[in-house]
Amino acid sequence: MSNYNFSTINDKEFESLVLDILNTEFEFNLQEFKVGKDKGIDLRFSSEKNKNSIIVQAKHYLKSGYSQLKSTLKNEELPKVKKLHPDRYIIATSLELSANEKDELVTIFHPYILTANDIFSNQDLNKFLR
């Protein structure tokens, strides 16, 4: 079985891959947007009650480690999430993550990330591709 590290695709292609995987696996019907400043929205599902019902942040961190991902999410993305106030926030990353790392991100993004199942790591994305 192949275990992809997604090194041959760029950030936008990674985002599109995440969109296709999540829409296929969970039937979210996520929206994708043009490249540019996104104010914290890479992908989104809108409901009648909340235009930002589900927000997905796709982080393609090829050569960065978990500490860089956590720092960026906490310092740059969390303030945006608080303004967007989604019902559900999902993170997808090309990094491999441990259970402890996922749990730490859940704590940082409480109450927006519902469970560690809303954090999709390299291992999770490869599982869906298999």
Fold and architecture overview:
The protein is globular and about 40 Å long. The chain has helices spanning 11-26, 66-84, 99-108, 122-129, and strands at residues 31-32, 43-45, 54-59, 88-93, 119-120. Strand 3, helix 2 and strand 4 (88-93) form a beta-alpha-beta unit. The mean pLDDT is 94. The chain is α/β, with parallel strands linked by helices and 130 residues long. The chain is built from 4 helices and 5 strands. The protein has a 5-stranded mixed sheet.
Keywords:
41% helix, 5 strands, 130 residues, single chain, 4 helices
- Computed over alpha carbons, the radius of gyration is 14 Å
Overall pLDDT: 94
- How many helices? The count is 4
Main structural class: alpha/beta
Concise structural overview:
The protein has 130 residues and is α/β, with parallel strands linked by helices. Helix content is 41%, strand content 15%. The longest helix has 19 residues, at 66-84.
